[in-house]
Hints:
By secondary structure, this protein is mainly alpha-helical. It has one domain: Up-down Bundle (Formate dehydrogenase/DMSO reductase fold), CATH 1.20.1630. It contains 16 helices and two strands. It has a two-stranded antiparallel ribbon with strand order 1-2. The longest helix is centred in the first third of the chain and has 33 residues. The chain is globular. The C terminus is likely disordered.
Amino acid sequence: MSFNDILPLIFMAVMGLALLAYVVLDGYDLGVGILLPFATDAEKDIMVSSIGPFWDANETWLVLGIGVLLVAFPKAHGLVLQALYLPVAVMLIGLTLRGVSFDFRVKARAERKALWNGLFALGSLLAAMAQGWMLGAWLTGFDNSLWPLLFTAGIALTLPTAYAMLGAGWLIMKTWDALQLKAVGWARAVILPMGVALVGISLATPMISPTVFDKWFSMPEFIGLLPIPVACAAAFYAAFHVISKPKVVAAGYGWVVFASTVLLFVLAFFGLAYSIYPYIVIDKLTVWQAASAHESLVVIFVGTAITLPVIVVYTIFMYRVFWGRASVLSYVAPVARDS
């Protein structure tokens, strides 16, 4: 391949990895928001505190992914956003509710705090379901007939369980005592529905998309894909084993739940990338058909080469600084000094 052919693939990889980083990083804080109604008032404060330093920065990856889609693949951007206008609007409403509620819930009067907690949870659920709908619609090539729509609705209804599992795993790592045990219980409650949903989606995807069917059940492609479901089963078992034994969590291995769930997301991403290549919109646009002119991509490449490392370094630095157990959320008024 020439550099002209490789450059669109580089941008496809950057966009895909940015969206994967968003789904994992923002997925756990969306999951924490979804779980918020099941906690006590004091526990809600700790849960929000656990995601406080991270949640808005996590969304940087979404901006990067959509930005690359816009400037590097304008034809695909127009097609995707036109088809997904409504779920994108719902997602933005949900993210806006989360952003407003995050600040207002801390400063609101006691009688208003429950309202903002509820709106934070509602915004998290709306954003998760909207992202599930967008994923399903994209996998079906934006087909609006009955079975593709049912498939899309199925992903919209089940993606929140995966986010809730991520959120529970995050809380198991970041909290302690009663809240940590409650997070283990939440993980137990959602892990089987999440597993059933993932298996159902995996079985339905090749039925919906002939392109995916050919990739999965042709030889030698089938052999190349086989390690992914095997590794997914191992990751699922690891998470299930840990949450089934509270003593293992108490011994300090609660991080396995979060790590195993993240691994499931990563494996699903690479399985999906393997299945749809070389399309950026299944059966409609390949990577090269959707790409901007080569001269434009070269200019964009320079900007991306500067921006992406900064985002990566900032993200690593942020998580390093704020790693460890969450603390109780509080706002302390400044002490007045005598002049």
